[in-house]
Amino acid sequence: MKSPVHRCRDVEHSRGQSGAGGGTSCLQEEQRIPISKDVITSSSASAMWFIRDACGIVCAIITWLLVLYAEFVVLFVMLLPSKNLMYSIMNGTLFNTLAFLALASHLRAMCTDPGAVPKGNATKEYIESLQLKPGQVVYKCPKCCSIKPDRAHHCSVCKRCIRKMDHHCPWVNNCVGENNQKYFVLFTMYIALTSLHALVMVVFHFLYCFEDDWTKCSTFSPPATVILLILLCFEGLLFLIFTSVMFGTQVHSICTDETGIERLKGETGKWGKVPCWEAMQIAFGGPFSLSWCSPFSGLSCKKSPEDHVAIPQGEIIEEDVIEIPLN
């Protein structure tokens, strides 16, 4: 059974073939409307965004608990008992900075609208307000009744169509899309760096304890110290591998201008791709600067009136493939 997206494209393709055979106007694929981000904008872009998914909420809580566990072991097992004050200050500052940036990036990735298309805008009044040309075709998502821009896909968890959706990640309890991909990339990068730093400190602490008395290298008992360090080592190694792979995958997707779901569905080459460096600037919000590494860039408490676009009310059009002019 074909998905609604493929069914819509098959309908357009069949119309084009029949039009070519009968001498009528053909609906070519390039006639599909690349509805811009500026045209389809939700007022939720400046509002709080949170997905009420039990699995995602549990995974997000586990993520924070694992980072806090690493904080506990690093501070109370390795750094505070250390006799070298400079070593403790330098590594404590670096580790806490990386952990803070990782959690901040996680929060921004989770609470940022990934690029959701407004629900229920597939009305005759709204389509007429777009002032489209005759012969053009737009697509309606049958699940959320929204006009789908190019490269938008429906997420069954978010229950919305997401622009440039890469995938739904339960660890951030959100889709990774056009608006929050930067924060997801930063989250994976900072978690990988935090895990690497923790592993290096665990190795040095083991070497230090082997050379010295185990009862003096930690405030905990030797068995408890070994168990805590082994668990941290396992956690750090696991997340270093996982987040490094995810970081590389996301950077590759940005540079190739191709999302994970587009690659999975074989939807490549159907749009004009941008060069790698230009795609990176689009994803990270401008020319290269230190703001690329900051999860706080673009954060503002002010609501711009331009973010609110009134959607004309009316009845939802039943057809999934809508041809202009409307009947």
UniProtKB/TrEMBL annotation:
Main location: membrane
Cellular compartments annotated: Membrane
Segments traversing the membrane: 54-79, 85-104, 183-208, 220-242
Entry similarity comment: Belongs to the DHHC palmitoyltransferase family.
Enzyme Commission identifier(s): 2.3.1.225
Coiled coil (residue ranges): none
Palmitoyltransferase DHHC domain ranges (all copies): 140-265
InterPro entries, per database record: Palmitoyltrfase_DHHC, PFA4/ZDH16/20/ERF2-like
Gene Ontology molecular function: protein-cysteine S-palmitoyltransferase activity
Cellular component, GO, one term: membrane
Entry remark concerning the domains of this protein: The DHHC domain is required for palmitoyltransferase activity.
Domain of life (superkingdom): Eukaryota
Presence of keyword Secreted: no
Annotated segments matching region Disordered: 1-26
PROSITE patterns: DHHC, PROKAR_LIPOPROTEIN
Keyword list, A-Z: Acyltransferase, Membrane, Transferase, Transmembrane, Transmembrane helix
Organism, scientific name: Haplochromis burtoni (Burton's mouthbrooder)
Membrane topology value: Multi-pass membrane protein
Record's protein name: Palmitoyltransferase
